[in-house]
Specification:
5 helices; alpha+beta; binds zinc ion
Length: about 140
């Protein structure tokens, strides 16, 4: 029997090359050695507070589509130079996110934090690995 060549659909290897966007604060190039992904706890608390108020304003179990459109966004992770740090409370060094296995490790680690749900980790990772979602 002849062996099949190439990959079977669904076994496609995830494109794991990390992108290094420009710094969200100074807009200059960021290198792996001086970059960090950071989040500000004050922003997380604000999101938590706004969401709580939103939920109090929407006590009904049945919601309209227009209600979902007003649901408050999560706090954004910032991609930045470590030296550009102004108000971040939690940082992950870029080199500790330079392959997808490390990202998975951090995802599991952060899922144990009670504030993680108020942050947009998915958006942060899609900036660093833009090809990943289409490859899953
Ligand atoms: Zn910067």
């Amino acid at each position: 029997m002849k062996k099949a060549k190439g990959r079977i659909s669904g076994e496609k290897k995830i494109r794991g090359k990390m992108q290094l966007p420009k710094c969200d604060l100074c807009r200059q190039m960021v290198q792996l050695k001086d970059g960090v992904l950071s989040i500000c706890f004050n922003e997380i608390l604000e999101v938590e507070h706004i969401r709580k108020r939103w939920e109090e304003d929407h006590p009904d179990l049945i919601l309209h589509v227009r209600d979902f459109l007003t649901y408050p966004d999560q706090a954004d992770w910032k991609w930045q130079h470590s030296k550009c740090d102004v108000d971040s409370s939690y940082q992950i060094e870029a080199a500790r996110l330079d392959n997808i296995e490390k990202v998975l490790h951090w995802t599991f680690h952060l899922m144990g934090k009670n504030w993680f749900q108020f942050t947009d980790w998915r958006k942060a990772i899609l900036r660093l690995y833009p090809g990943i979602y289409g490859d899953l």
